[in-house]
Amino acid sequence: MPLTAESAAQQIQDRLKDIQQQIHIVDEERRRAENSISTLVRSLQTNNAKVKPLLKASMLETSQEEATIRAALAKIHEIRSIRNERRIQARNAGNKEAIRRGALMKMVQLSAQTLPLFVSKPGERAPALCGAIPAEGNYVAKVGDNVAALAKGIDEEENWILAEVVQFLQRQNKYDVIDIDEEQKDRHVLSKRKVIPLPLMRANPETDGHALFPKDTVVMALYPQTTCFYKAIVHRLPATATEEYDVLFEDSSYMNGYAEPLPVAQRYVIAYRPTKKGASSGSGNLSSA
Predict the structure, then answer these.
(1) Which pLDDT score, from 0 to 100, does residue 32 have?
(2) Hey, what CATH topology would domain 146-197 get?
(3) Fewest beta carbons less than 10 Å away: which of 179, 221, 225, 259?
(4) What are phi and psi of 85, to 5 degrees?
């Protein structure tokens, strides 16, 4: 059943109320946990025999706080899904949004900044499509997901562009995607091997460094203020969950063949995939890209 604007707004409002309640609960749980930890520390300092039960209580309270935070994050994810569903419905109904270039670039950047952060539990490893971890072989990107797509332009040259999935054609094993660039808005039907799903979650460098590309890895990265992916080398990894990679884009106008480092968000740094004619390898001067 199609989601109406009214029902979508109500669902979002309900979830915002839930999040507000959960924030208050988290605040209470945190204060309680801090008091328990303070009591535990005092007991350790005085060799109190009640240390073990106090430790168990502190661990339980911390787990409860974690569960509440995860529940709030789940509500945020639901809100994103509802908004995305409404946007897709509006597009399918023929409603076109005219987005200026500057606004589009801000949306691209905001999408990367608000990408959910994977918070691992002890012993848990980051899943597929978290940071640098690729999708599994049988994975199919969902309608509305952003992908890197190897598409032909006006000059018939193939380039890796930022696109959105319109549908997956099961029988043909092909994607129907649309260029997110408002100036183009071209539709492309591409084989699955010409479409790379983008990360659905950010990796936390402090807990899941294995889910990041190592330094000096050859990758494809979205060149700042464009909607095209180019060949680059990882120069510096993000040190915190909010930081970006620094990458060196291939550029023949520099003596060493690479430009000065530029920041690119985790969402837009993906495994390098060569093309037949070296398309999107970043050859040439990218300073004007």
Answers:
(1) 85
(2) SH3 type barrels. (2.30.30)
(3) 225
(4) -65, -40
Structure tokens at 228: 């095209």
**Residue 90 dihedral angles phi and psi, to the nearest 5°:** -65, -40
pLDDT tens digits for range 49-92: 677 787 788 888 888 888 888 888 888 878 878 877 777 777 66
Identify the burial level of 126 via C-beta atoms within 10 angstroms of its C-beta, where 0-12 means exposed, 13-18 middle and 19 or more buried: buried
Asked whether 247 and 219 are in contact (CB, 8 A), the reply is yes
Q: Parse the chain into domains and list their residue ranges.
A: 5-96, 146-197
Residue located via tokens 């059943």: 1
